[in-house]
Design a protein that fits this description.
Elements: E1 3-7, H1 12-28, E2 33-39, H2 40-46, E3 52-57, H3 64-72, E4 78-83, H4 88-94, E5 99-104, E6 120-121, H5 130-140, H6 156-169, E7 174-178, H7 190-202, E8 206-210, H8 215-227, E9 233-234, H9 241-250, E10 253-257, H10 260-268, E11 272-276, H11 281-284, E12 292-294, H12 296-304, H13 328-341
Parallel strand pairs: 1-2, 1-4, 2-3, 4-5, 5-6, 7-8, 7-10, 8-9, 10-11, 11-12
Helix pairs in contact: 1-5, 1-10, 6-9, 7-8, 7-13, 9-10
């Protein structure tokens, strides 16, 4: 097997999980050629990923994105396609990728016609983390099981920029709060982010607010600052994804809800506190992190009368007020635990 195509278009957290599978393949077979079809935003983060050719699929182009994909891959036939996404958009894109073998998710995970586009399927896992489900694709082509490792593409320029930003803020310890998830209901309350920020400031941390340029993210950052008596360093909307990754890599600690930067922190080894209410952190939380504050299980039981083990894996909790169940004292206690255990 000399050529592999990986299809995983989105999202930031998921492509971070998928990187570990791709790089386990590279460690097992350093000479293999890997092409990865991914979304435009995700490609901004992973541009320069060692030994991987990125092909951008820009969903905003609509049907033209499929024509562009066909043009980008014209004349190519891969030994295997690892199709790591069940969304119909990705399923349709797989039809434009020529490969001798096409491997997709197991029957239980498959949806939106995913199974119809695949010839082989990964084994069924009982209750996998998303990262573990991706790792099955490497197992399917003969790569032995191994602990996830990451070699993320960080340029020296981005490292230097992040170092200068942190040094300018003063102090030796830095907390990054990436407050906004893709859905507003997964965000914690701004006054509670502010209370945690104040707790960190009282212990000598410089607190940085980070996030994308969307208006909702900037509004949330402004609300957090308005509730905090101490000035915070607001970088929301002012960083490219590689710069954000560089900031995360040099920070002491990251706090985030169910959103991409939580998983970016995992890839660079920065401790991360995850705040979870709507999804099961055992499935989508920062992989391997013991520092998760969650109210998912109590709300799942209240809404369904069943535990996570009694329901389809990945069942989500609904409601706009779920995250309000996470108390400031609980998160502050977790913050103190991370500071203590990592000697920050």
């Amino acid at each position: 097997m000399r050529s592999i195509c990986v299809l995983r278009l989105s999202a930031i957290g998921d492509v971070c999980h998928a990187v570990s599978a791709v790089q386990s393949i590279q460690r097992h077979d350093p000479g293999v050629s890997i092409t990865w079809v991914m979304g435009k935003v995700e490609a901004q983060l992973l541009q320069g990923l060692p030994g991987v050719r990125l092909v951008v699929f820009d969903k905003r182009q609509g049907w033209r994105a499929y024509s562009q994909l066909r043009a980008d891959l014209r004349g190519e036939r891969f030994d295997v396609l690892l199709h790591m996404q069940v969304a119909f958009r990705a399923n349709l894109a797989s039809a434009f990728i020529r490969a001798r073998r096409k491997i997709g998710f197991d029957w239980r995970t498959a949806k939106e016609l995913h199974a119809l586009f695949m010839r082989e399927r990964t084994p069924v896992l009982s209750q996998p983390h998303v990262l573990e489900a991706f790792a099955q694709f490497a197992r399917a082509i003969g790569v032995p099981a191994q602990a996830p490792l990451w070699d993320m593409p960080l340029t020296q320029a981005d490292r230097d920029w992040a170092r200068e930003v942190l040094q300018t803020s003063g102090g030796q310890r830095h907390l990054l709060i990436c407050a906004a998830a893709s859905a507003a209901e997964r965000n914690w309350l701004p006054e509670r982010y502010a209370a945690l920020a104040q707790h960190a400031v009282s212990q000598g941390f410089a607190v940085h607010l980070c996030g994308g340029p969307a208006e909702a993210e900037q509004t949330l950052a402004q609300a957090i600052q308005a509730h905090c008596p101490n000035p915070l360093f607001n970088h929301v909307g002012q960083t490219r994804l590689p710069q954000l990754l560089a900031l995360i890599a040099q920070a002491s600690l990251v706090l985030a809800p169910d959103t991409g930067p939580a998983h970016m922190a995992t890839t660079v080894g920065t401790p991360v506190i995850g705040l979870y209410g709507h999804s099961n952190p055992a499935r989508t939380g920062p992989y391997g992190s013991p520092y998760v504050v969650e109210v998912y299980h109590q709300h799942l039981l209240a809404q369904t009368g069943k535990t996570a083990e009694q329901l389809p894996w990945g069942t989500r909790v609904k409601g706009p007020d779920v995250m309000a169940s996470i108390q400031v004292t609980t998160v502050c206690d977790m913050f103190d635990r991370v500071v203590r255990e990592h000697n920050l």
